């Protein structure tokens, strides 16, 4: 077998956002505040993150730090949205309902993971995310397919830095030339390819084309079976 391992980005490749969770957040906060939910811009989200960090850098070093960070984040979010009463209780409710629980699997995710696992591939996830990477996949029931979880917050480097890719390879004991990779962000897919991975850009919207573009994870199966 030419390839020994396959790595995936998480968001946009394995999992999607859950619209029901988004709708629940908006309607619940609107009920508490008495006004429509105000959409959160990237700039405002970063402001709320900075408040939640309480001046700490990095914001969190492990999953316990991350839990406390997001408990504070949801309280600041409620204050900004104009909620006045029972802030601590309501922030806990948002945390319990949303933290690491706002994703859903793409329809083909489990089928593709089953295929590669049954054929002896080592599998890992490489993501620019927080220490809860493995936990989010446990919640969705797919952590069992992977033997490495490489999160930028723990490695200290984000894609497309060679540092994070090399950390993932070392965790599996394979080379880039022995590995497949799929990412939904072109600079990161290209960065992996520059390191020697057989790397694919996931374009679920169907706007990209080319030899290294896929629109569904099942196309990875087609590739290895050729």
Structural class: alpha/beta
Tally of DSSP helical segments: 10
Mean pLDDT score: 97
- Give the overall shape: elongated
Instruction: Please report the distance between the alpha carbons of the first and last residues.
Output: 12 Å
Low-confidence stretches: none
Helix and strand sequence: EEHHHHEHEHEHHEHEEH
Portion in beta strands: 5-15%
Largest sheet at a glance? 6 strands, parallel
- From the alpha carbons, calculate the radius of gyration and give it in angstroms: 19 Å
Counted beta strands: 8
User: What level of helicity do the residues show?
Assistant: 40-55%
Description of the molecule:
Helices cover 47% and strands 14% of the residues. It is α/β, with parallel strands linked by helices and 226 residues long. The strands form two sheets. The protein has a six-stranded parallel β-sheet with strand order 5-4-1-6-7-8, sandwiched between helices. The chain has a two-stranded antiparallel ribbon with strand order 2-3. Helix 6 (133-139) links the parallel strand 4 and strand 5. Helix 2 (42-53) packs across helix 3 and helix 3 (63-80) crosses helix 4 (87-98).
